[in-house]
Specification:
Alpha-Beta Plaits; 11 strands; globular; 10 helices; alpha+beta; Double Stranded RNA Binding Domain; three-stranded antiparallel β-sheet
């Protein structure tokens, strides 16, 4: 049995082909769209299955054409997915960034991380939206939330949750003293509404004007949305879209994910099944150190993986760190 046969077996490609064929037949029936919610879920599932089957076919094509480098690259990518078998690993992800203590330094660091993750998302050819952002007074961001839409986005990003530490010469004081800054990263999956109880009467809705760059671009109407979940006090916002309806939909997705996370923290036994060895995204949980002075080094404190090419990492080349996380932490 060759590598592709083994991979096909582990990824259950044979079963997925049959499921895709069944869904294709269902979708051609005249009454398929009578239940639009069910039909939409089935079409999303079909698209996911077709993409996984297409990836295996692409791998076979590289082998037949003797494109060894492309073959090995695609093979490694597919082998990683064997480890991503958690319930929500295939889901889109919500990435939240929070500046730690340290004023402008920490806010600048949070913005550097925002840029790093956006670059990584783009390299994966996923889509992203900046859902909400609070800018710092002088520079950087106090917080930001990004929606990463792509197959396995949550599986790839979930272990990035935790505290990220930066050591560098400060660009914000005249003496250029060495400064240590912290930022917190949180990662949540997009949750289906049916999996979390969310009653309309428990939601307090507020519309407000999106913050813009100023001048002619400032929103004249209240399109941004803020939702408050009255039983828990959880507040979420979205100003990513020009439509209030779309922002409300995104805000509801975020709220569902936060309610899911809250429930998981109460049920640690289930968390281990869903997320592996769980650690809360708290300030005491430092996962990675980025040193830019007096030497250059980025080191993951959980896997031990490190590199001296700090600029490459900050430019979004996180693949080696994430591969190590998936193999060791999933």
């Amino acid at each position: 049995m060759n590598k592709i046969d083994i991979l096909e077996k582990k990824l259950r490609i044979k079963e997925k082909r049959k499921e895709a064929e069944r869904l294709e037949k269902e979708s051609s029936q005249s009454d398929f769209w009578q239940d639009s919610l069910s039909a939409s879920k089935k079409m999303k599932r079909l698209a996911t299955l077709q993409k996984e089957i297409e990836e295996i076919e692409k791998l076979k094509g590289y082998l037949q054409e003797e494109k060894e480098e492309e073959f090995e690259k695609e093979l490694k990518k597919l082998e990683l997915k064997i480890f991503l078998s958690g319930k929500y690993d295939r889901s889109h992800a919500i990435l939240s960034l929070h500046a730690g203590q340290g004023g402008t330094e920490a806010m600048d660091w949070a913005e550097m991380l925002k840029r790093m993750y956006i670059r990584f998302i783009e390299k994966q050819k996923w889509q992203w939206k900046l859902i909400e952002e609070t800018r710092g007074e002088e520079a950087g961001i106090k917080r930001a939330m990004i929606l990463a839409s792509g197959s396995y986005a949550y599986g790839y990003l979930k272990h990035e949750a935790g505290t990220h530490r930066l050591v560098r010469l400060s660009p914000f004081n005249a003496d250029h003293l060495r400064q240590t800054s912290f930022a917190l990263v949180e990662v949540l999956p997009i949750i289906e509404e049916a999996e979390v109880e969310l009653r309309d009467e428990d939601i307090e809705f507020e519309a407000f004007r999106s913050s813009g760059p100023g001048g002619q671009f400032v929103q004249k109407v209240a399109t941004a949305v803020r939702l408050c979940h009255k039983p828990t006090g959880i507040v979420v916002e979205s100003q990513a879209e020009r439509s209030q309806i779309q922002n409300r939909k995104i805000a509801k997705q975020i709220l569902l994910s936060k309610l899911w996370e809250r429930e998981q923290q109460k049920r640690k036994k289930e968390i281990k099944k869903i997320k592996g060895e769980y650690k809360a995204a708290s300030w005491g949980n430092q996962i990675r150190s980025y040193v830019l002075h007096p030497y250059h080094l980025v080191k993951d404190l959980r896997t031990g993986y490190e590199t001296k090419d700090t600029q490459s990492v900050l430019d979004g080349n996180l693949e080696k760190f994430i591969e190590a996380e998936i193999y060791q932490l999933s």
